[in-house]
Design goal:
Oligomer: single chain
Helix content: 25-40%
Radius of gyration: 16 Å
Order of helices and strands: EEHEHEHEEHEHEE
Number of domains: 1
Number of strands: 9
Protein backbone atom coordinates (compact mmCIF):
# COMPACT_ATOMS: atom_id res chain seq x y z
CA UNK A 1 0.00 0.00 0.00
CA UNK A 2 1.16 3.51 -0.82
CA UNK A 3 -0.16 6.40 1.24
CA UNK A 4 0.45 10.02 0.25
CA UNK A 5 0.13 12.43 3.15
CA UNK A 6 -1.85 15.65 2.66
CA UNK A 7 0.93 18.07 3.63
CA UNK A 8 4.68 18.36 3.29
CA UNK A 9 6.40 17.78 6.61
CA UNK A 10 9.98 19.01 6.88
CA UNK A 11 12.11 18.59 3.78
CA UNK A 12 10.89 15.10 2.79
CA UNK A 13 8.21 14.25 0.27
CA UNK A 14 5.33 12.90 2.42
CA UNK A 15 4.94 9.35 1.17
CA UNK A 16 4.72 6.03 3.03
CA UNK A 17 4.89 2.61 1.33
CA UNK A 18 3.84 -0.50 3.24
CA UNK A 19 3.89 -4.22 2.57
CA UNK A 20 0.57 -5.60 3.73
CA UNK A 21 -2.37 -7.92 3.14
CA UNK A 22 -5.28 -5.61 2.37
CA UNK A 23 -8.04 -8.10 1.72
CA UNK A 24 -7.63 -10.76 4.37
CA UNK A 25 -6.69 -11.56 7.90
CA UNK A 26 -3.74 -13.94 8.08
CA UNK A 27 -4.51 -17.59 8.66
CA UNK A 28 -2.65 -17.39 11.96
CA UNK A 29 -5.38 -15.05 13.22
CA UNK A 30 -3.33 -11.87 13.43
CA UNK A 31 -4.88 -8.60 12.31
CA UNK A 32 -1.51 -6.85 12.18
CA UNK A 33 -0.70 -7.56 8.54
CA UNK A 34 -2.81 -4.73 7.18
CA UNK A 35 -3.19 -1.05 8.03
CA UNK A 36 -6.51 -0.26 9.69
CA UNK A 37 -8.45 3.00 9.52
CA UNK A 38 -7.59 3.97 13.10
CA UNK A 39 -3.88 4.08 12.20
CA UNK A 40 -4.59 6.48 9.35
CA UNK A 41 -6.81 8.60 11.58
CA UNK A 42 -4.19 8.70 14.35
CA UNK A 43 -1.66 9.73 11.71
CA UNK A 44 -3.91 12.62 10.68
CA UNK A 45 -4.23 13.65 14.33
CA UNK A 46 -0.44 13.67 14.76
CA UNK A 47 0.01 15.69 11.57
CA UNK A 48 -2.14 18.42 13.10
CA UNK A 49 -0.23 18.21 16.41
CA UNK A 50 3.37 17.31 15.48
CA UNK A 51 4.72 18.75 18.73
CA UNK A 52 3.20 15.76 20.52
CA UNK A 53 5.95 13.50 19.13
CA UNK A 54 8.63 15.86 17.78
CA UNK A 55 11.91 15.26 19.58
CA UNK A 56 10.23 12.60 21.75
CA UNK A 57 10.89 8.92 22.39
CA UNK A 58 7.78 7.11 21.16
CA UNK A 59 6.44 3.66 22.03
CA UNK A 60 3.80 2.27 19.66
CA UNK A 61 1.62 -0.57 20.91
CA UNK A 62 0.21 -2.92 18.27
CA UNK A 63 2.30 -1.35 15.51
CA UNK A 64 1.07 -3.73 12.79
CA UNK A 65 2.50 -2.65 9.44
CA UNK A 66 4.33 0.24 11.11
CA UNK A 67 2.43 3.14 9.55
CA UNK A 68 2.33 5.33 12.66
CA UNK A 69 5.90 4.49 13.69
CA UNK A 70 7.23 5.31 10.20
CA UNK A 71 5.25 8.56 10.14
CA UNK A 72 6.79 9.59 13.47
CA UNK A 73 10.33 8.61 12.49
CA UNK A 74 10.42 9.94 8.92
CA UNK A 75 8.18 13.01 9.00
CA UNK A 76 7.34 14.14 12.51
CA UNK A 77 10.83 14.36 13.97
CA UNK A 78 10.56 11.79 16.75
CA UNK A 79 13.85 11.15 18.52
CA UNK A 80 13.34 7.38 18.62
CA UNK A 81 10.44 5.00 18.01
CA UNK A 82 9.93 1.53 19.45
CA UNK A 83 7.43 -0.25 17.19
CA UNK A 84 5.99 -3.14 19.19
CA UNK A 85 3.52 -5.91 18.51
CA UNK A 86 2.53 -9.12 20.25
CA UNK A 87 2.66 -11.22 17.07
CA UNK A 88 5.96 -12.83 16.07
CA UNK A 89 4.85 -12.74 12.43
CA UNK A 90 4.04 -9.04 12.53
CA UNK A 91 7.35 -8.14 14.20
CA UNK A 92 9.20 -10.25 11.64
CA UNK A 93 7.48 -8.34 8.80
CA UNK A 94 8.11 -4.86 10.18
CA UNK A 95 11.66 -4.64 8.72
CA UNK A 96 10.15 -4.96 5.23
CA UNK A 97 8.07 -1.82 5.74
CA UNK A 98 11.06 -0.05 7.29
CA UNK A 99 13.14 -0.99 4.23
CA UNK A 100 10.52 0.39 1.85
CA UNK A 101 10.73 3.72 3.66
CA UNK A 102 14.50 4.07 3.87
CA UNK A 103 14.72 3.08 7.53
CA UNK A 104 16.63 -0.17 7.16
CA UNK A 105 19.56 -0.24 9.57
CA UNK A 106 18.41 3.05 11.09
CA UNK A 107 18.45 3.73 14.81
CA UNK A 108 15.29 5.80 14.40
CA UNK A 109 12.91 2.81 14.66
CA UNK A 110 13.34 -0.37 16.67
CA UNK A 111 10.93 -3.29 16.09
CA UNK A 112 10.21 -5.21 19.28
CA UNK A 113 7.88 -7.96 20.45
CA UNK A 114 5.70 -6.86 23.35
CA UNK A 115 2.89 -9.04 24.63
CA UNK A 116 0.26 -7.15 26.58
CA UNK A 117 -0.14 -8.32 30.15
CA UNK A 118 3.40 -9.72 30.31
CA UNK A 119 5.83 -7.99 32.67
CA UNK A 120 8.11 -5.46 30.99
CA UNK A 121 10.85 -5.79 33.59
CA UNK A 122 12.32 -8.65 35.57
CA UNK A 123 12.35 -11.04 32.61
CA UNK A 124 15.03 -10.90 29.93
CA UNK A 125 16.68 -7.65 31.03
CA UNK A 126 16.96 -5.71 34.24
CA UNK A 127 15.75 -2.49 32.61
CA UNK A 128 13.15 -2.53 29.87
CA UNK A 129 14.37 -1.22 26.51
CA UNK A 130 17.85 -0.75 27.92
CA UNK A 131 16.62 1.87 30.37
CA UNK A 132 15.73 4.35 27.61
CA UNK A 133 12.91 6.74 28.44
CA UNK A 134 9.47 6.76 26.82
CA UNK A 135 7.80 10.14 26.38
CA UNK A 136 4.76 9.21 24.30
CA UNK A 137 2.77 5.99 23.92
CA UNK A 138 0.65 5.56 20.79
CA UNK A 139 -1.79 2.87 19.77
CA UNK A 140 -4.31 2.49 16.95
CA UNK A 141 -7.17 -0.01 16.78
CA UNK A 142 -5.90 -1.94 19.78
CA UNK A 143 -9.24 -2.05 21.65
CA UNK A 144 -10.88 -4.32 19.06
CA UNK A 145 -11.64 -7.29 21.36
CA UNK A 146 -13.02 -7.29 24.91
CA UNK A 147 -10.81 -10.23 25.81
CA UNK A 148 -7.55 -8.32 25.19
CA UNK A 149 -8.52 -5.06 26.90
CA UNK A 150 -7.55 -6.01 30.50
CA UNK A 151 -4.07 -7.08 29.34
CA UNK A 152 -3.70 -3.94 27.21
CA UNK A 153 -4.66 -1.65 30.08
CA UNK A 154 -2.36 -3.60 32.40
CA UNK A 155 0.55 -2.90 30.04
CA UNK A 156 -0.35 0.79 29.88
CA UNK A 157 -0.43 0.85 33.69
CA UNK A 158 3.05 -0.68 33.79
CA UNK A 159 4.35 1.86 31.28
CA UNK A 160 2.97 4.64 33.49
CA UNK A 161 4.74 3.01 36.43
CA UNK A 162 8.06 3.11 34.58
CA UNK A 163 7.51 6.49 32.90
CA UNK A 164 5.06 8.55 35.00
CA UNK A 165 5.25 11.59 32.71
CA UNK A 166 4.46 9.68 29.51
CA UNK A 167 1.56 10.85 27.35
CA UNK A 168 -0.71 8.09 26.06
CA UNK A 169 -2.86 8.56 22.94
CA UNK A 170 -5.00 5.79 21.48
CA UNK A 171 -7.17 5.81 18.37
CA UNK A 172 -10.08 3.46 19.08
CA UNK A 173 -12.48 2.38 16.36
CA UNK A 174 -16.00 1.88 17.73
CA UNK A 175 -17.18 -1.18 15.80
CA UNK A 176 -19.69 -1.94 18.52
CA UNK A 177 -20.58 0.08 21.59
CA UNK A 178 -20.25 -2.83 24.03
CA UNK A 179 -16.57 -3.40 23.26
CA UNK A 180 -15.74 0.29 23.44
CA UNK A 181 -17.59 0.69 26.74
CA UNK A 182 -15.66 -2.31 28.06
CA UNK A 183 -12.43 -0.42 27.32
CA UNK A 184 -13.74 2.66 29.14
CA UNK A 185 -14.89 0.54 32.08
CA UNK A 186 -11.55 -1.26 32.48
CA UNK A 187 -9.69 2.06 32.37
CA UNK A 188 -12.03 3.48 35.01
CA UNK A 189 -11.53 0.45 37.22
CA UNK A 190 -7.75 0.76 36.97
CA UNK A 191 -7.73 4.44 37.86
CA UNK A 192 -7.11 5.75 34.35
CA UNK A 193 -8.98 8.78 33.06
CA UNK A 194 -9.99 8.70 29.37
CA UNK A 195 -10.16 12.17 27.79
CA UNK A 196 -11.67 12.34 24.31
CA UNK A 197 -10.08 14.75 21.85
CA UNK A 198 -12.38 16.56 19.43
CA UNK A 199 -11.13 15.03 16.18
CA UNK A 200 -13.90 13.25 14.24
CA UNK A 201 -13.35 11.26 11.07
CA UNK A 202 -13.85 13.65 8.14
CA UNK A 203 -16.49 12.74 5.54
CA UNK A 204 -14.94 10.87 2.62
CA UNK A 205 -15.70 13.76 0.24
CA UNK A 206 -13.58 16.07 2.41
CA UNK A 207 -10.61 13.73 2.79
CA UNK A 208 -7.45 14.71 0.93
CA UNK A 209 -5.52 11.51 1.63
CA UNK A 210 -4.93 9.06 2.98
CA UNK A 211 -8.49 7.92 2.33
CA UNK A 212 -10.34 5.71 4.78
CA UNK A 213 -13.82 4.60 5.84
CA UNK A 214 -15.92 7.38 7.36
CA UNK A 215 -18.81 5.19 8.56
CA UNK A 216 -17.52 3.95 11.93
CA UNK A 217 -16.48 6.52 14.55
CA UNK A 218 -12.83 6.54 15.62
CA UNK A 219 -12.15 8.06 19.02
CA UNK A 220 -8.87 9.79 19.83
CA UNK A 221 -8.38 9.02 23.53
CA UNK A 222 -5.81 10.48 25.88
CA UNK A 223 -5.21 8.29 28.93
CA UNK A 224 -4.10 9.81 32.21
CA UNK A 225 -3.51 8.44 35.68
CA UNK A 226 -5.97 9.85 38.23
Amino acid sequence: MDQTLPVLVGDKAPHITLLESRNLIAASGTTGLRTWEASLHLGQYLLTRPSLVRGKRVLELGAGTGYVSILCANYLGSKHVVATDGSDEVVANLPDSLFLNGLQGSDAVQPMELRWGHALVGTEEEQWNGGREVDVVLGADITYDKSVIPALVGTIEEVFGLFPKAEVVIAATERNRETYESFLSVCEGRGLEVVHAEFPVPPRAEQTGPFYNDVMPIHICQLRRR
